[in-house]
Amino acid sequence: MADLRAGVIGLGMIGGGVAVSLARSGHPAAAVFDVRPEAADGLEGVPACVASPAEVAQACDVVLVAVVDADQARAVLTGDDGVLAGSRPGLTVVLLSTVGLAAVRELADLCAGSGVTLLDAGVTNGPEAARNGLVTMVGGPDDEVAAAVPVLEAFSRSVVHCGPLGAGMTTKLARNAITYATWAAVREATSLAAAGGVGPATLLRVLEQAEDTVAPLLHLQLKAVDYTIGEEQQAWASGLADKDLAAAQELAAELGLSLPIVDQVRPRMPDVYAGRLDGLD
């Protein structure tokens, strides 16, 4: 890591957390960028934003891209002042954004045309991003992943090399399918219990007494079932769920698989985040 200069593009919850975690590990980002020039303000150990993604590429060996979706990632990479405009052969781009596999392959091809390697790296445990708590699922060639691992380990709790290009994102989409389906199941279960006069705290108490039968993810989500968020946050969260589940459906169609649970869960996510199912609040 001492010889690698890392940069971060996108300083939201994930990217900002990654930048803070790099600093906490003693390897602060050499350059960061966000469309909000003030985004780095208040992020401990994180330098002020530079003027463009190209400047991040010029200053760094590994560029971590943590934007919202494929369109933003494409713009960050290929814009007039994008990463590829400032790149040099040998640069590595690590895509932390959750996108579909077609987008991963497209962006990797665009990077390869400039002698740049793209690795796909889905991340999870977002609320812990600023405390070196991310689990990073990376896809790409063995040697390229090995070269980037020191940077990944500097901000992650765990790094898992899942396989070739696309394997990291595939793992993230599969993990997300479990997460969203579990959220929907928790909401349905608590709605059923509430309709019968049993509150979430009672249901949780029963599950805690039989904890060996409860998956940790289900347990965590049931603990959070009373947590309410505002309408703006609901729209944001359900939008992310829709994007991620759509990507899972797209991959399944490409592979000739059916995902009947995902098909049912995807249109339900706005109600899941609003805390209502089947007319029950």
From TrEMBL:
Keyword Secreted on entry: no
Species name: Nocardioides marmoribigeumensis
Domain 3-hydroxyisobutyrate dehydrogenase-like NAD-binding: 166-269
Keyword tags: NAD, Oxidoreductase
Record has Electron transport as a keyword: no
Family: Belongs to the HIBADH-related family.
Domain 6-phosphogluconate dehydrogenase NADP-binding: 7-163
Highest taxon of source: Bacteria
Protein name per its UniProtKB record: 3-hydroxyisobutyrate dehydrogenase-like beta-hydroxyacid dehydrogenase
Gene3D superfamilies, per database record: N-(1-d-carboxylethyl)-l-norvaline Dehydrogenase, domain 2, NAD(P)-binding Rossmann-like Domain
SUPFAM superfamilies documented for this protein: 6-phosphogluconate dehydrogenase C-terminal domain-like, NAD(P)-binding Rossmann-fold domains
